[in-house]
Amino acid sequence: MIPGAFTYHRPSSVAEAVAILVSHGDEARPLSGGHSLIPMMKLRMAAPEHLVDLAGIADLKGISDDGGTITIRAMTTQHELIASDLLASKLPIIRETSLLIADPQIRYVGTLGGNVANGDPGNDMPALMQCLDATYVLSGPDGEREVPARDFYEAAYFTALAPEEILTAVRIPVPPAGHGYAYEKLKRKVGDYATAAASVVLTLEGGSVSFCSIALTNVADTPLFAQEAGEILAGSTLDTATVARAVAAAEAITEPASDGRGPAEYRTKMAGVMLQRALAKAASRASS
Ligand code: FAD
């Protein structure tokens, strides 16, 4: 289908973009890669009268290391995440996850900012950002504020982002050197959204888990930070009984829809299977 009519805006600064959003209220939407928004417009599930293209804002591009925290500006594409040497050395789970998103054509254009701001439970980056305890930087008419990824998602397509705000950057604390990581995603075919996926970052000391962070994708209306599961594993040697308890705790917080990806019970179980695999892979990659 063809989208409804809209006015196209191309601001060159965040302040200009925010001013356009303020003047048009609910009728305006930011446009990043357009790989979620334009399909929704073609289906007439979204019909913004004003599109505010962020592509001309130089301040929204780039990845930097601020000493212990990596800042990724919102318009950084998924392809640029994959190509970044800095991320490969400090946050390799971002590359691993990005490679599981859609296909190369979409990753050349789709952005990190669009992926996390979208609020679609099927997007892979939100759970990863919860796992990494990232913070989102939001710019609006009253200036800048920061919201933890773990507090950002309210329901499917509802987030803490106000209509006149732009997500400008994602800040991620760098996990300790030698940490283990894995993003395990079950999908029906290449390019598909997750039936269920699990993100794990952990550290080992003397063969025991000293820290473990877990989050799940597409098994509820929002990404799920599985805090209890991570806490169960802390101090353990990832023995079978403790892993089973952690997996059960993670499965217990899921609430997936029954849809073309399978019945709810199946998707809950697959979240558990993805978590088990991610834990084993993360442990095998961690230095003790
Ligand atoms: P856009 O589509 O431009 O925007 C998405 C939404 O976020 C819009 O509501 C927009 O107004 C808002 N927005 C965008 N940027 C900002 C900002 N900076 N501040 C505030 N609001 C903003 N994604 C996955 O994670 N996993 C997949 O497996 C996957 N498979 C896909 C398969 C196909 C066939 C397609 C078409 C897409 C797929 N995607 C998948 C989605 C893709 O990754 C999108 O690019 C991404 O979700 C949105 O990023 P975008 O830059 O295209 O954002």
In short:
The protein is α+β, with helices and mostly antiparallel strands. It is 35% helix and 25% strand. The chain has 3 domains: 7-53, Uridine Diphospho-n-acetylenolpyruvylglucosamine Reductase, domain 2; 58-173, Uridine Diphospho-n-acetylenolpyruvylglucosamine Reductase, domain 3; 181-285, CO dehydrogenase flavoprotein, C-terminal domain (Enolase-like, domain 1, 2-Layer Sandwich), CATH 3.30.390.
Notes on the protein architecture:
Helices cover 35% and strands 25% of the residues. The strands form 4 sheets. It has a 5-stranded antiparallel β-sheet. The chain is globular. With 288 residues, the protein is α+β, with helices and mostly antiparallel strands. Helix 10 runs antiparallel to helix 11 and helix 11 (240-252) crosses helix 12. The longest helix is centred in the C-terminal third of the chain and has 22 residues, at 264-285. The protein has helices at residues 14-24, 37-42, 78-83, 85-90, 92-98, 104-109, 112-117, 125-131, 149-152, 227-233, 240-252, 264-285; strands at residues 7-9, 28-31, 50-53, 63-65, 69-73, 135-140, 143-148, 153-155, 158-159, 166-173, 180-186, 196-205, 208-217, 224-225. The protein has 3 domains: 7-53, Uridine Diphospho-n-acetylenolpyruvylglucosamine Reductase, domain 2 (2-Layer Sandwich), CATH 3.30.43; 58-173, Uridine Diphospho-n-acetylenolpyruvylglucosamine Reductase, domain 3 (2-Layer Sandwich); 181-285, Enolase-like, domain 1 (2-Layer Sandwich), CATH 3.30.390.50. The structure holds flavin-adenine dinucleotide (FAD). Flavin-adenine dinucleotide is lined by residues 29-37, 39, 54, 74, 101-102, 106, 110-111, 113-115, 117-118, 123-125, 161, 166-167, 191, 193.
